[in-house]
Specification:
mainly alpha, rod-shaped
Length: 57
């Protein structure tokens, strides 16, 4: 008799802990978007007008 009571108590505890499924995760929340390479300020520093004025004239 005591074993069945313990089994019932254990079953209730298990149901209280694992009885509900976790909330759904949307596919949009599973994707992290980051740039493939860090931004390089020297790469964007080229100015074609300045280059032509300095070296072309």
């Amino acid at each position: 008799m005591q074993e069945t009571e313990q089994a019932g108590v254990a079953q209730e505890r298990r149901r209280a802990r694992f009885g509900a499924l976790p909330e759904r995760v949307r596919p949009q929340d599973m994707v992290e978007e980051r740039p493939a390479t860090p931004r390089d300020p020297a790469r964007d520093a080229y100015d074609p007008d300045e280059f032509s004025v300095r070296y072309g004239l």
